[in-house]
Amino acid sequence: MRAVTWQGTRHVSVEDVPDPTIQQPSDAIIRITSTAICGSDLHLYEVLGPFMTQGDVIGHEPMGIVEAVGAGVSHVRPGDRVVVPFTISCGDCAMCSHGLQSQCETTQVTEYGSGAALLGYSKLYGQVPGGQAEYLRVPHADYGLIKVGTELPDENYLFLSDILPTAWQAVEYADAPTKGTLAVVGLGPVGQLAARIARHRGVEVLGIDPVPERRTMAARHGIEVFDLAEDTVGEIRERTEGRGPDAVVDAVGMEADGSPFAGLAQTVAGKLPDAIARPLMENAGVDRLAALHSVIDLVRRGGTISLSGVYGGAASPMPLLTMFDKQIQLRMGQCNVRSWTDDLLPLVEDPADPLGVGDLVTHRLPLEEAAVGYDLFQKKHDGCIKVVLDPTIAPAPSV
């Protein structure tokens, strides 16, 4: 089959790889019909190379049709249309029973002290082949797979795999009061959805992003938008009676702009031999924290910060004096996808499209053009906000 493979920093390519097969009774094989590029994929593309192996199949936002199931799978059968959550969880352990599927004790990657295994996401999370491919093996399919209807387009359902529940969890964790104010920093795909979810819940939402196309998209959904400028924090404080918003979602993460030292450190680590870079990142890695530090400055005293942007630094400095003095509550974590499925399915199937899932994809490309999609998404060129790869579309003939 054809699949998107990691070949090095800022280098992916579509290659022939072996077809997946049933390995355990709980497995299913899915024929992929849509698979998205996530902001977290850019961390593999840009920063986390020391934890990758050349040829790794990447991607963790897929959906498609069940082709085969193991003997232990009864929830789905061949022919069913399904969404595949990016977290691999058993549904039976203590963590899953507490709604913490991202900490699943059955699939935890104990070698690295990490939580549940993830599809297509480096040694840190199990090095399980991912979903930017024609076919995908899904472990623990009986619990993980989300069975969906056949009438609506893929885009109605696809984001149940990751970014929609991630955004929902971010808003849940932010816990902004109804008629309160929530600021969303970073209006990429997760930030867009978090802003729409909060507004759907009756919260006043302020969206912050330096990219004009992202601000324009958010504004279409009733979000009051702000450029990322020197006076933005002051402007929003003035907008919120001098206090700052009740809660802030940081939807940026480890590669924020405006952190030159950390950016240089990440670049240098990415070029070192893996045997040197891995322990360096595990023990002394730093994130680009400009966005997070601005969020700490922005939120009101006694407010809540919800981190949905991924951070991976083991030695990232934090302004604890300020955080303690402001009595800030901080919530974060990998998304517990299956905890939010029942809340989200009715919303994505609602003809009114209250979360605007039909207005997020800016580029739908053949799987073979994955390298183009990664480049567009990483550089934010051509108004790119969300890329979906489609294995069913033939690539354009070369001239």
Automatic annotation (TrEMBL):
<dbReference type="InterPro" id="IPR002328">
    <property type="entry name" value="ADH_Zn_CS"/>
</dbReference>
<dbReference type="GO" id="GO:0016491">
    <property type="term" value="F:oxidoreductase activity"/>
</dbReference>
<protein>
    <submittedName>
        <fullName>Glutathione-dependent formaldehyde dehydrogenase</fullName>
    </submittedName>
</protein>
<dbReference type="GO" id="GO:0008270">
    <property type="term" value="F:zinc ion binding"/>
</dbReference>
<keyword id="KW-0862">Zinc</keyword>
<dbReference type="Pfam" id="PF00107">
    <property type="entry name" value="ADH_zinc_N"/>
</dbReference>
<dbReference type="Pfam" id="PF08240">
    <property type="entry name" value="ADH_N"/>
</dbReference>
<dbReference type="InterPro" id="IPR036291">
    <property type="entry name" value="NAD(P)-bd_dom_sf"/>
</dbReference>
<feature type="domain" description="Alcohol dehydrogenase-like C-terminal">
    <location>
        <begin position="189"/>
        <end position="255"/>
    </location>
</feature>
<keyword id="KW-0560">Oxidoreductase</keyword>
<feature type="domain" description="Alcohol dehydrogenase-like N-terminal">
    <location>
        <begin position="25"/>
        <end position="142"/>
    </location>
</feature>
<comment type="similarity">
    <text>Belongs to the zinc-containing alcohol dehydrogenase family.</text>
</comment>
<keyword id="KW-0479">Metal-binding</keyword>
<dbReference type="InterPro" id="IPR011032">
    <property type="entry name" value="GroES-like_sf"/>
</dbReference>
<dbReference type="InterPro" id="IPR013149">
    <property type="entry name" value="ADH-like_C"/>
</dbReference>
<dbReference type="InterPro" id="IPR013154">
    <property type="entry name" value="ADH-like_N"/>
</dbReference>
